[in-house]
Design a protein that fits this description.
The protein is an alpha/beta fold and 1137 residues long. It is built from 46 helices and 27 strands. Helices cover 52% and strands 14% of the residues. The strands form six sheets. The protein has a nine-stranded mixed sheet with strand order 12-11-13-10-14-19-9-21-20. It has a six-stranded parallel sheet with strand order 3-2-6-7-1-8, with helices on both faces. Strands 22, 23, 24, 25, 26 and 27 form a six-stranded mixed sheet that branches.
């Protein structure tokens, strides 16, 4: 459908001579509009793409922008004037080198270009995140050893204070937190100095921390005062005068504390409060008085609890003790900062020595480069316009870099602060918010444009989102007024009650709810039932919801993901998700690690056992016999001393040879080369492929080999083993489940940028993981480093004022982040939105009255949108339809725990899997009548079928007049023989000997991949010749793809030229080999045909290679430069034009 901009989008596209901040709500078409703006600059202002900088945060997003811009330029060529066509064609030629990418990729390019200005090597390598962590760990170890050897008393005091166990992990954790935070600051030195100056001030009335805590305490007291005033009004109405003095006393106390002009006065007031006792109720009190007496008790307890909280936040109500707390928290901080800087300096030296950089370094080097005024002016003059997509996720260092590249009125920032959900990566949404208000107030050179027209979701879903986020997104929370600036606008129609809330009533307390596996199971079954219901519903296009249309969105990975996945799988619902797996604990990685350990240190008994079992075929009984034969020392000594003349001894003799070889080989080869040699010699890859999930295991091996080839330790086994010990503590993410037509389970973070016909968001009653930080340091933007300090008498760690301030301030930021996460999740749905969770409805009335910053889960957020007229429905568990001003309808359903069946087999009956859908059957019958609709009819086909059909169209059927013995063989066994050739070629590394190729084939026979009958018909000379002919090309490749399967949808007439049949067909096939060199591909397809007619082969398979080319380019974005057939019979490569 052609792009037609709305009024706000037109305003952005036509904007000139101003910096523009676009606040683009979810689904508002920001990318399409940005492409149109770029095209306007290229076409109207004749600005070349080489003079544009377009920044975003992921390579995938950058690729998408570049591709869409390329397509837009191509599309404009057809209508361009002749004098413009040359200019546009030139843009297509140079777009690959345009600065359209991540900020890090642009920084890297410019650092390499101007390396001489900052004394940097131009051929530096990039560190992976794991390698960077490892180098910091090594630097930390080095610095710690230095301070230990120098008997540094201050260091030992830190070491003893923060290391509660018999290791140094506690102190390291604090230092790593400091280092990670500082490395993302634009000017860490000034930030530290400013916070130290303001937060450690001994003038209590001007201390930044105490001023914040004072303000927070006053907010707590205002909540108490609100309850007291309501109770006093009730007291007057009921004329229960005996309570009045007591209530007024409490009210006056709150008011005096709230009205305190500074911290000193606050302390004075709170330390001199009267302690009146609550009046007793009358002996013959009636029901009215009894109820009121209870109400007074509640507000009084709230008052007393608040005073306790105030004392907790302030540490003490004694001025001297508060001063002492400030001084003690400063003492340890200075030493920690000194250690952190030493580690950073050592880390920098190590990187310089190895000629490596990480992503933080790219930003730092870029800032250093921009200090050169000449370079800065060159770059500013080159970039006529700068675009920053997803601007809400920028941090202050990145903002500083871009601000130095921006000229006047040429900066376009596109983003949505409501979707800023990467605080854990140090993104700072306040940058967006501050610029939003600055640009609104300074309209001369700056402009704010709101994109609120939504092109994704049904109107009913949009309006429901509006009533929820009107309450949640305010200037007080995430910084903008949603109801004024960000309400969704839709031109669509309400399509029914397609928003639902399913609330599973639970009597479990909020704290226990997060840990309840029983609740998770119940909720998972409820989700399955919702999916079954959705499968019976039609989408707006008239078709039924399918599994692939449904996404289950959750807050974070954890036990609930596995519960969901297992439950849906048991109920036969195809499901796909990503789970956390132990990469380093897998069989294949454990084996490779053991091989390296044995090569380095034969005294590792476990590693030795693994190697003997897997490489030398010793079983458990044989290993036990070795141990019994020599039980004195370690297992390796038992292996060395085994001297029985039997089969075990023969196997151990081979191991002795292997151990000698390993030691010698590693003296002159890298770890990667050694492992590759072992993999080849022991046919480990072939064995792995024969196992369940074999391809996954082989891919893990490849990743491990790549890891072992790092410059940091490629020749040093001990260093590599240290690295493995360090990184093996972290689990990897791995996709599990069904591909294709499957329900997807994903986190909110993963769902960002995606959309689905139906979204089921679950876990809404699960408690936020907020303010549970028990670490000894909490870092906050506004107060710096909140350390625990050591009590000099008890030697126990205790909270500090700064830590409390950081904790409270961070709690607000974390709640704001949860609001933004909820917004992202609820705006993924196009046609159906289901919110599911468990909730203790007994607490509803109490929770609904609380300030938003006391919310504990997403339901607490959503319930803020429920008008008070419906509160009784929650109390009575009575289902209802939320209908506010007829704009949005949402069905609210309450369920009891016992309503959800635990027996999955019982629940299975609710899911109609395999049942014939009458409507679908009717549609099928109609579609198979002789009334084809070529516009919509879809076929699934193989490449072979397409080829056969094309021959029919072109009357190219080939039938030999007589069949030779070879032809008969081909007609009988051609497919199986061809498969055997392909299997062998797939397993070649292209450096094998003839004997090795024969061994590979024999192994494939043992695995029943090749039959013995076909094995005898293989011409191994042909395979050897193929290996020789192709080895130079393959071994010099940057990357190779073997046996790449594909499934591609395409119009028939785009596959078969000169056909007027535009039926959509889904084509599946397998590409034998693609060799990638210098960013272009060379496609090779193996042929076993017994013919010497080159032209016959080329013409017969030209279409097949065309299809393969289309599929590969579409899947990888790598252009195929040349297509070849390799004929085993002729022993040559045939290029197909």
């Amino acid at each position: 459908m052609a792009y037609t901009p709305n009024d706000e989008q037109k305003e952005f596209i036509k904007s000139e001579n101003s910096n523009v901040l676009v606040s683009a709500s979810a689904g508002s078409g920001k990318t399409s509009t940005m492409i149109q703006k770029l095209m306007n600059i290229i076409l109207v202002q004749k600005v070349s793409v080489k003079n544009l900088m377009v920044l975003t945060f992921t390579d995938a997003a950058a690729t998408e922008i570049k591709q869409k811009l390329y397509n837009a330029i191509v599309a404009s060529l057809s209508t361009a004037q002749p004098d413009n066509k040359k200019f546009l064609k030139n843009q297509l030629d140079i777009i690959d080198s345009a600065e359209i990418g991540t900020l890090h990729s642009v920084c890297k390019k410019l650092i390499i270009k101007y390396f001489y200005e900052i004394n940097e090597s131009p051929d530096f390598k990039m560190l992976s995140e794991k390698e960077s962590k490892y180098l910091i760990e090594s630097a930390t170890k080095n610095v710690f050893e230095k301070h230990i050897s120098s008997s540094d008393d201050e260091f030992f005091e830190l070491y003893e204070s923060y290391n509660t166990k018999r290791n140094d992990l506690g102190l390291k954790k604090i230092i790593y937190a400091i280092i990670n935070y500082l490395r993302n600051k634009a000017d860490p030195t000034n930030w530290i100095e400013e916070n130290i100056q303001k937060c450690f001030l001994e003038d209590l009335d001007n201390n930044k921390v105490l001023m914040y805590l004072l303000d927070y305490c006053k907010k707590l007291l205002k909540n108490v005062l609100f309850g007291l005033n309501k109770t006093i009004d009730t007291c007057k109405t009921l004329e229960l005068i005996k309570y009045m003095d007591f209530l007024l006393n409490r009210k006056n106390a709150c008011e005096m504390l709230i009205e305190s002009i500074n911290f000193s006065q606050f302390l004075k007031v709170i330390n001199n409060l009267d302690s009146l006792t609550k009046p007793r109720k009358s002996k013959n009190a009636d029901v009215v008085e009894l109820d009121f007496d209870e109400q007074v008790s509640i507000v009084n307890q709230n008052y007393l609890d608040t005073l306790k909280d105030i004392k907790k936040h302030l540490i003490s109500l004694d001025k001297d003790e508060i001063l002492s707390n400030i001084v003690s928290s400063r003492k340890n901080l200075d030493k920690l900062l000194e250690l952190s800087q030493e580690i950073l300096d050592k880390f920098a030296r190590d990187k310089k020595k190895k000629n490596v950089l990480d992503f933080n370094d790219l930003e730092d080097k870029m800032l250093k480069l921009l200090e050169n005024q000449n370079i800065q002016e060159i770059l500013k003059s080159n970039y006529k316009f700068i675009f920053f997509d997803e601007y809400q996720d920028i941090n202050e260092k990145q903002e500083k870099i871009v601000s130095k590249l921006v000229s006047s009125n040429n900066y376009y920032m596109i983003g949505d602060v409501k979707q800023s959900i990467y605080a854990f990566r140090q993104s700072n949404p306040k940058i967006f918010v501050n610029k939003f208000y600055k640009f609104q107030n300074d309209t001369k050179e700056n402009k704010v444009i709101n994109f609120n027209q939504n092109y994704r979701s049904d109107k009913n879903i949009l309006e429901f989102n509006n009533i929820v986020f009107d309450k949640l997104i305010t200037e007080n929370t995430i910084g903008i007024n949603y109801s004024k600036n960000s309400r969704f606008v839709s031109s669509g129609n309400v399509s029914g009650c397609n928003v639902s809330l399913s609330i599973l009533d639970s009597k479990i307390n909020d704290d226990e709810m997060a840990e309840s596996s029983e609740l998770e199971k119940k909720e998972a079954i409820l989700v399955a039932n919702k999916i079954a219901m959705l499968k019976t519903c039609k989408k707006t296009d008239g078709t039924y919801f399918d599994y692939k249309d449904i996404a289950i969105i959750i807050r974070s990975r954890g036990s609930f993901v596995k519960t969901l996945y297992d439950t849906l799988s048991q109920m036969q619902i195809p499901t796909s998700t990503v789970v956390s797996v132990d990469f380093y604990g897998s069989y294949e990685i454990n084996l490779l690690t053991s091989i390296i350990k044995v090569a380095s240190n034969f005294h590792d008994d476990l590693a030795l056992s693994i190697v003997l079992k897997n490489l030398f075929d010793l079983n458990d009984d044989e290993l036990n016999k070795i141990r019994q034969n020599y039980s004195k020392d370690n297992f390796f000594d038992a292996v060395l001393n085994y001297n029985c003349e039997d089969e075990i001894f023969e196997k151990l003799s081979k191991f002795y040879e292997f151990s000698k070889f390993s030691g010698l080989y590693l003296t002159s080869h890298t770890i990667c080369e050694y492992l590759q040699k072992v993999l080849d010699d022991f046919d480990i890859i072939i064995k792995l492929k024969s196992m369940p999930n074999g391809i996954e295991k082989v891919n893990n091996v490849k990743e491990f080999l790549s890891l072992s080839n790092s410059e940091s330790y490629k020749y040093n086994v001990d260093k590599f083993l240290d690295f493995l010990d360090f990184v093996s503590k972290d689990n990897e993410l791995q996709k599990v489940g069904t591909n294709g037509n499957a329900v997807q389970i994903m986190t909110i973070h993963y769902s960002k940028g995606l959309e689905f016909p139906a979204v089921i968001m679950c876990g809404l009653g699960k408690r936020f993981n907020i303010n549970k930080d028990t670490n000894d340091i909490i870092i906050g933007e506004n107060f710096g480093f909140g350390l625990k300090s050591i009590n000099p008498e008890t030697r126990v760690l205790q909270d500090t004022l700064i830590r409390n301030a950081c904790k409270l301030d961070n709690k607000k930021s974390e709640i704001d982040e949860e609001i933004r996460l909820l917004y992202v999740a609820m705006t993924r749905a196009k046609e159906h939105l289901d919110l599911i969770g468990t909730y203790n409805l007994d607490n509803f009335e109490k929770n609904i009255q609380k300030d938003i910053y006391f919310s504990k889960n997403y339901f607490d957020f959503v319930f803020k949108a429920v008008p008070s007229v419906y509160y009784s429905n929650f109390e009575n568990r009575k289902d209802f339809v939320l209908n506010e001003n007829l704009d949005s309808m949402a069905s609210i359903q309450f369920l009891k725990m016992e309503d959800i069946l635990d027996d999955l087999s019982s629940s299975n009956n609710q899911i109609a899997i395999g049942d014939v859908d009458n409507n679908l059957l009717e549609t099928f019958v109609k579609s198979t009548e002789n009334k084809p609709n070529t516009q919509v009819f879809t076929i699934k086909n193989t490449v072979t079928n397409i080829l056969n059909e094309e021959k029919d169209y072109e009357n190219l059927n080939y039938c030999p007049k007589s069949l030779s013995p070879e032809d008969k063989l081909e007609s009988i066994d051609a497919l199986e023989l061809g498969t055997a050739y392909h299997s062998i070629m797939q397993n070649l590394n292209f450096d094998e000997t003839k004997e090795k190729i024969l061994d590979i084939a024999n192994t494939l026979v043992k695995q029943n991949i090749i039959s013995k009958n076909i094995f005898e018909k293989i011409n191994f000379d042909e395979i050897w010749e193929a290996k020789e002919n192709l080895s130079d090309l393959i071994l010099s490749a940057d990357k190779i793809y073997k046996e790449k399967q594909f499934l591609m949808q395409q119009n028939y007439n785009k596959i078969v030229k000169n056909s007027d049949n535009n039926t959509k067909v889904i084509v599946q096939g397998v590409i034998d080999l693609v060799v990638v060199k210098n960013d272009v591909g060379y496609l090779i397809d193996y042929k076993t045909n017994k013919t010497n007619n080159e032209e016959f082969l080329k013409s017969n398979y030209a279409l097949q290679l065309d299809i393969y080319k289309q599929a590969f380019e579409k899947a990888t974005n790598i252009a195929i430069k040349s297509k070849f057939l390799y004929s085993f019979h002729m022993g040559k490569l045939l290029e197909v034009i």
